[in-house]
């Protein structure tokens, strides 16, 4: 519960209220950086989100998540995180970290999109059941080729950083996002991720570091955090998983 | 041909040498902003790119395109463009334009990824011929739902800008990228784009403005610019197109 002043200063955060989805990447940074926000669609419902999307004439968002502040909106997950980190000086600073973290975040979002497309390979407008045969084929390549390729890349990237974080000596929005990516992969592909466990030690270590961050414990224990389910980006369809 | 001094100052630009692909978005900004660069894989071949990718211990790129400068690499198309625009002060400045242009660029890249996935809906590791039946289904939704949804969004976004560009009174990397997106859609889906021609007047206008930019005419007439072909992101498979 925010005080009145904080409530006036708070960002309006907009995302679908029933799934973690891409919104969770923004929530993690808002929470860990202690940035006041109102999760508007969870307060007022999905209809309010749809109405707000239609309302914006300037700086419209193609899709949620987006944040509204000073009468304008900022959309695209990586762009929102980049903005918040700079505006609130949350995370490593310096030019090198700045572009490197955005690069890593965009690579994380690429893998998130691929993880989504495994269960929706043909169209987001079709139900999973309407493209299940195609999803079974897509899942094979994602499990066997893409997950190892991405995790090996992140593990290699972490090897070049001394502090154990993606950039420098402290955590950044990209570390928080990477944690959620691993959470999502473990939820959606438990058998495959169990097989790969231990193969990418730095990936496991980074996930554990973020899971233990004091800045996130209150959020993790709160109902502000949504659970994965079969409507979101990461879905557990047993038939799409394998060791 | 660059002079010796420019050659020393030039960025090493790395992308697959036989396709415009995502590299073209970077080339357009390097050329329009008159930033010296060497198209390394076009000079030395794809093998040189593969060797360079393996060589970088710090700041590795998950995939091309990337630029190398001061001994480090910057990857992810939107990140490269954001870096170049800031470093070389090319394009509109100001905080609002900064995040807005990155947001638009990321939305452009989302549509680029969807356009690619139409002909590779199951896996990039499979040939088109191995997923042609799925591509036919994916193309239907992309043509009928996604192209209109994206173009209507960009048209609406342009309506909120007075100057006719995506931000402010002058062109930006996002305008250049949007031009190439429309070029790619017209190449890959000529029948569909012909049907939609005129429905999004601001989209057509912006494409024409960039096509006529004095800063790009030398590039357009040079062999530095690669033509679309059936190996790239945008491919013309007649069976995937329809009015």
TrEMBL record, chains A, B:
The keyword Ribosomal protein does not apply. Residues 94-233 form the GST C-terminal domain. InterPro entries: Glutathione-S-Trfase_C-like, Glutathione-S-Trfase_C_sf, Glutathione_S-Trfase_N, GST_C, GST_superfamily, Thioredoxin-like_sf. It holds the Pfam family GST_C_3. GO terms for molecular function: glutathione transferase activity. Residues 10-92 form the GST N-terminal domain. PROSITE patterns: GST_CTER, GST_NTER. GO terms for biological process: glutathione metabolic process. The keyword Repeat does not apply. Keywords: Transferase. SUPFAM superfamilies: GST C-terminal domain-like, Thioredoxin-like. CDD domains: GST_C_Sigma_like. This is Glutathione S-transferase. It comes from Sphingobium quisquiliarum P25.
């Amino acid at each position: 519960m925010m005080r009145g002043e904080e409530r006036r200063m708070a960002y309006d955060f907009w995302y679908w209220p029933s799934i973690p989805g891409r919104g969770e990447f923004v929530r993690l940074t808002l929470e860990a950086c202690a940035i006041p926000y109102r999760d508007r669609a969870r307060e007022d419902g999905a209809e309010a989100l749809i109405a707000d999307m239609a309302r914006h004439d300037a700086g419209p968002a193609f899709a949620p998540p987006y944040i509204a502040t000073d009468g304008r909106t900022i959309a695209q997950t990586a762009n929102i995180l980049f903005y918040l980190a700079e505006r609130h000086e949350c995370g490593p600073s310096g030019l090198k970290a700045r572009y490197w973290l955005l690069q890593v975040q965009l690579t994380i979002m690429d893998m998130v999109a691929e993880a989504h497309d495994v269960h929706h390979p043909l169209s987001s407008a079709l139900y999973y059941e309407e493209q299940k045969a195609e999803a079974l084929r897509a899942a094979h390549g994602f499990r066997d080729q893409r997950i190892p390729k991405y995790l090996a890349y992140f593990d290699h990237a972490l090897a070049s950083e001394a502090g154990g974080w993606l950039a420098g000596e402290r955590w950044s929005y990209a570390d928080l996002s990477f944690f959620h990516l691993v959470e999502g992969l473990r939820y959606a592909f438990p058998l495959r991720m169990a097989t790969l466990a231990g193969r990418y030690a730095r990936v496991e270590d980074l996930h554990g570091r973020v899971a233990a961050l004091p800045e996130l414990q209150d959020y993790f224990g709160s109902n502000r955090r949504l659970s994965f389910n079969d409507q979101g980006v990461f879905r557990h369809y047993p038939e799409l998983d394998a060791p």
